[in-house]
Predict the 3D structure of the following.
Amino acid sequence: MINRKGVKRRQFLVGLVSVLILHGCSRTQPVSPQVSIDVRPKVVSTSTILTNLTSEIAGDAIQLTGILKPGADPHVYEPIPTDSKALEEADLILYNGYDLEPGIIRLMNAAGAETRKLAVGEVVSPIEMQKQGQKVPDPHVWGDVRNVITMVLVIRDALIELSPININRDRFTQNATRFRQHLEQLDIWIREQIKTIPPPNRKLVTTHDAFHYYARAYGLTLAGSLIGISTEEQPSAQTVQQLTDSIRVAGVPAIFAETTINPALIKTVAQEAGVKLAPRQLYSDSLGAPGSGADTYVKMMVVNTTTIAQALGGKVKPFKPKITSE
């Protein structure tokens, strides 16, 4: 359920502010406002990807706090005191789920019982992976743009339920519709770029298992990775050797490092396997910093697709989404 007390408190404050404004207008002397009250709902998002998706839908109609910053690894991130405060005060917490951000989830579960917590990524049917001998859901659901379209609609509905102001509901609906159209065009564009890669080269080797959804959606084969779905894992010497051998057998022209993981080991693998390391790292668990060219979800997917396609022998056309009327 939504934090009803928080919503009612904001409705009361909206009414109170309106009364004070009307009362002030009836006076002959101008009244200077002494207190600025922000009545917008407080929403906390865990990952940089969720923060961006939520911002695209809500704009400035909510108070949005993102826990993870660009470049932070959600698998190993340990929350700080300000994170705890934000979670406790939130009317709505949006998190990926499927144990992507275990440290934040532990802290989040200690927040007030009335605070609504929505596992946005868990609206997607997961790919199951092996972790320490057990099957677990792969949390990297955003690799398939169609999954993100589903997530956008769920975020939209949660924000509509949270907002007491009708005009915001229309705004959230319009923004989500426009963003969905953008994502649908992105999905088509990715498919077209991957198809330019020669079929024998459509094999992906990365630092950790973060691209299963991407590979399945867009026609790539995952030829190997150094570590599993969580960056908490440490590859053994045997694992490194096995990956090196697999790369030689697969005959891939390039392998890929990731921005949230130290590239030293994957560089060594590339050297020993005699293959090129792609000149640009992939964004796996986090968006890039402002100015990186990958500071939104759409830009991140464009950068990743361009990097993959060019390194594997494909040719990339610029992504130019069509502007549709509202």
Summary: Residues 11-29 have pLDDT under 50 and may be disordered.
